[in-house]
Amino acid sequence: MSTRLSRGGRLIDRSRPLTFTFDGHPYRGFAGDTLASALLANGQMMVGRSFKYHRPRGLVASGHEEPNGLVNLGAGERMEPNQRATVTPLKDGMVALSQNRFPSLDLDLGVVNDTLLGRFLPAGFYYKTFMWPRSFWKHVYEPFIRKSAGLGRVPEGRDPDRYEHFHAHVDVLVAGGGIAGLSAALAAGRSGQRVLLLEQAPHWGGRALVDEPEIDGTPAAYWVERTVAALEAMPNVRLRLNTQVSGVYDHGYVIACEQLDGAGPRQRLWRIRTKRIVSAIGAIERPLAFAGNDVPGVMLASAMRDYLVNWGVSVGDRVAIVTNNDDAYRTALAVHRAGLIVPVIVDARPNPSGELVRQARELGLRIEAGRGIAKVKGRGRVTGVSLCALAGEGAAIEDIGCDAVAMSGGWTPSVHLWSHCGGGLRWDEGQAMFRPDPAKPPRTHDGSVLVVPAGSSEGELRTGAVLESGLRAGAMAAGGEVLATVAARDAEEGPILPVWIMPQGAPTALKRKMWLDFQNDVKVSDVELAAREGFQSVEHAKRYTTLGMATDQGKLSNVNGLAVLSQSLHKAIPQVGTTTFRPPYTPLTLGTIAGVAKEELFQPIRKTAIHGWHERHGATWEPVGLWRRPFAYLRPGEHVENAVNREVLAVRNGVGLLDASTLGKIVVKGPDAGRFLDMMYTNVMSTLPVGKCRYGLMCSENGFLMDDGVVIRLGEDAWLCHTTTGGADRIHAHMEDWLQCEWHDWKVYTANLTEEWAQVAVAGPRARDVLAKLGGLDLSPEALPFMTFREGKLGPFDARVHRISFSGELSFEVAVPANQGLALWEALVQAGAEWGVTPYGTEAMHVLRAEKGYIMIGEETDGTVIPQDLNLGWAVSKKKADFLGKRAQERVHMANPGRWLLVGLETLDRSVLPEGAYILGRGENTNGQKNTEGRITSTYFSATLDRGIAMALLDRGPERMGQVVRVARKGGEPVEARVVDPVLYDKAGERLNG
Amino acid sequence: MLTLTCPHCGVQADETELSPGGEAHLKRFGPGSSDEEFEGYLFRRANPKGAHYERWRHTYGCGKWFLAARDTVTMQVFGTYPAWLAEPSDEMRGLVSGQRAGSGVEPGTPTEPEAAQ
Amino acid sequence: MVEVTLSAPLGMISLRGDHGDAALREAVTAVTGTAFPERLRIEGTSERGAAWMSPDELLIFVPRDEAVAAVARLSEALAGVHHLVADVSDMRVCLRLDGPGAREVLAKLSPADLHPEAFGPGTFRRSRLGQLAAGFWLEGEGARVICFRSLADYALALLRQSGRDGAVGYY
Predict the structure, then answer these.
(1) Can you give the residue ranges of every domain in chain C?
(2) Would you identify the CATH topology of the domain B3-99?
(3) Do C84 and A273 lie within an 8 Å CB cutoff?
(4) What is the value of ipTM here, to two decimals?
(5) Tens digits of per-residue pLDDT, A120-157?
(6) C155 to chain A: which residues are within 8 Å by CB?
(7) Residues of A whose CB is below 8 A from C161
(8) What ranges does the record give for the region Disordered, renumbered to this chain (chain B) (predicted)?
């Protein structure tokens, strides 16, 4: 039984008891506990079931490498899956549920996978099983995989918490606040540069405070306290606890996640730019691979020591130690000092001899050298171990009773931050570890070294070397010299003996019970099978076996797995290499990544000056880029289709108002502006007289139509180009691109003044009457003929009135400074009341323009359409020597008479054609699909004509007027439609001349 | 995520403040050019593994276009300079070849594919 | 703490032209009464001053009721000089961030370096605030932000939420 000891626990406050529940059982803990330490204190060793075999799983570690202690945390909308119990601070009232078990942790039906199917679920099981027959994919295999995949439950409901980002620019970022990170920050801080020190835990000092070496002649805790105080006193240094450096990206971009505990946001994502990073994130102890190493009660030796020293929790009363190195003896000594029993220290080394070994001997602890564990006894809980010779095949020498096993296979430096941007590793034979290779550092934008490793993250395990490494790294990162040294004293250690499986000659039956990856149920036998099946690359073997996948990301299982793989392949470990370390170091919540951008702040919405009026008058919205434009204005109880029809008829028969403020407005000015616009547009703009308007087309250099709009000439050297709503920023950028990069010596300035003006289209036979009521500018046909504009006062407004039309009706577009926009609109509504002036939305605008056969960018065009396809050849200059797109339009395919060309369509049954539908050709293609000869680009119900109308691109369309074509319809027979002129209304154009 | 120093305003801009514009120093071919020339201008790109001259716009800043010489593998930036130059300056070429001494890679020239693993 | 409000309407003028041109420099300083703003600087304030937008663009601030006259004055002074001047008073809004937390509120949203060494009084920085394009500088007991008028509601909500989310304790 694990339990709380009556004394000890440097992190807990026994005066502050807390209560919590696990799987519904009420438990007690103390402030300062983690969920894991509190569970152990309550005797709850078993925390979950494994992924594949549903084997009982206990806590293995005490930090972020914990593979088993993943729980559903919280309740309701705050429930969160896969939270690591080992790094979750205990809070009063906390609710935790175990995962991956059904119906309960103690009685799990999925365990059948283990007992019956175990041998049938080998490496690559998914790939082997779910391949055939194909007909099973969707309805048999996928539901099965979905049900069994994943660990925790998906949260239900919206996340009620808030998150935020914070950007910081520093010279040196130190990741990790253990003694290596603290000394690095100290050295870097002395340079006066901007230093940021981040520590993932709620306290400084890291593991040094568990083992308590002597630093500067004092206990480590004092040194840590003094150093933190010194750093806090430096104005150029910032320190944060509870903040984990999560990923290192190119050019010194680093993200870190801060856990907050207050009324504000729940987490803060730090987005950091740094010149240099010191990676002082420590090392992770490796498990040993022996049969039954996954039985609850088998734990990393360092973790067992952590629970004892930090939280006053014993994992068992009789703790067997199994190791290949000296460090595990610290656990033996700590267990012994706590008054518990260490029945045996199983040491794989033939002659262990370090200082800690001597201390253990002197205390009379039994050491079995050259031995290994043949097998752990017990199922839901350790009951004993069988000893064997390490060199043998696992014949039991002796059974020893115990209720916990502390294992240590040596230490693996956490090289994640070193490796995220490509830092290389070297194999250290003496310490049996991969450590950062100083010859292959990750580099930043100027080619200099980006990451400097320090402490055990660099591969230094002794206190003195760790401190020295920290100071050196800090100074190096700050570009200076090491100015001070720190003396330290800890135990001398003997060498490690690499042990990858125990015993070395273990038969398959034992290897099937040796776990490498506890979370994903990957065993020694799986990796060996993968090697036999030809998976020689470590990256392939990882994916085939799932070793180190999911939340582990190579922390616990990586080195053991690849060592087993290398043995199977008869290669040296460095030849096999490691898998790639990728950010994040531990999972980030989506909320953290989104930051403040949720709910109403999810995405910016652009509003015109008249937006509020639209909102108050029943507008339904159409998103156009980030703009919201009224789609139609619904009267109470009115259906949207009826509203559109009403609006269309109002414009045709009376007068309507459209908020056209979103149209792009770009001023182009300068001595070379005319020449420049002649390059931008397919037609000639330089000859446009001052005061006049001209419709223009813009093509990309590839010849395709990209935007259109009316260009007006403001003065001798100034033009104003209207663009589509979505095109304003894009076209302005396009213009600047050509001006800055290609014709940089042309004297032209542009300004995107889109938002300076509000613009209202007043359209319909009564348009002039409405405007005349405002007074001011003479808008008579003589003073303001079609395709001209005038500037001046319109009533109280500073207006520019354009006589242009996108509806085919008499129409004026009135631009005023945006702050006058709402007043203008309201004045027009009032002035037009006697003629039933009707605000109309984008859908009515579409219907009106389609009735007139006017094209719309994004409807008739899709990036493959040239002006000639749309019968707009008249707007493409034949005279100009050059314009953007001219050369491209001379290509064979562009001039091919077999292109699909614009026509109008009228359905024979008056119905509305489906949007985007294809026009069917003759026969079928080689895939047995029907051939097509065109497609619908726009389709509406025309209230004016009382029938469905459409525009389409059709093979040789204009030659086929009067023919009947067949248009595909989903789930029904094709619809017959007659090919007609796209101008379906007022072909002579008399109305707009009214 | 890259940082590039905008040569126009001197800001060390974050990649999220920039818009990429593809390969730099393309020579425009207009009417009168051959199909091969036009195809080369419009579609053929070096896409090198190594040093590359490329276009960027400081969209969320001064709005100006500039060019960068960057190693597409190591992400090292040799320098940035205004976009109107038809060719990299000798100084820029020097920086690129100097930083890559011994590699013999000329920007825009695809390197040999790596030997099979 | 930070209070975020919409500034009263400002007179704003966009001027594009050669910053090395003596006539242009003189015309600008005559309107603003301040020094000519050099790279990444703002001279004066949002009441009257000028900010460096790009190597050939300035944003000139004058009291709102003087904007039309100032545009005319600039046009007159720059007759014969290649330039583009436009009254853009309605194109953007100015938001006030009043309070000592202004720097941190901006740093929550912008990738720009806002450390006092890099962003002090007189620095004018165009960058992003979250998904918005914006310009900002220190003024009074806080900061000022300009962005397109269509985004005013979003910008207000964004900055206010960032202010409400509290101090980071970094600056």
Answers:
(1) 8-87, 91-164
(2) Folate-binding fold (3.30.2270)
(3) no
(4) 0.98
(5) 566 776 666 666 677 777 777 666 666 555 567 778 88
(6) 604
(7) 596, 601
(8) 94-117
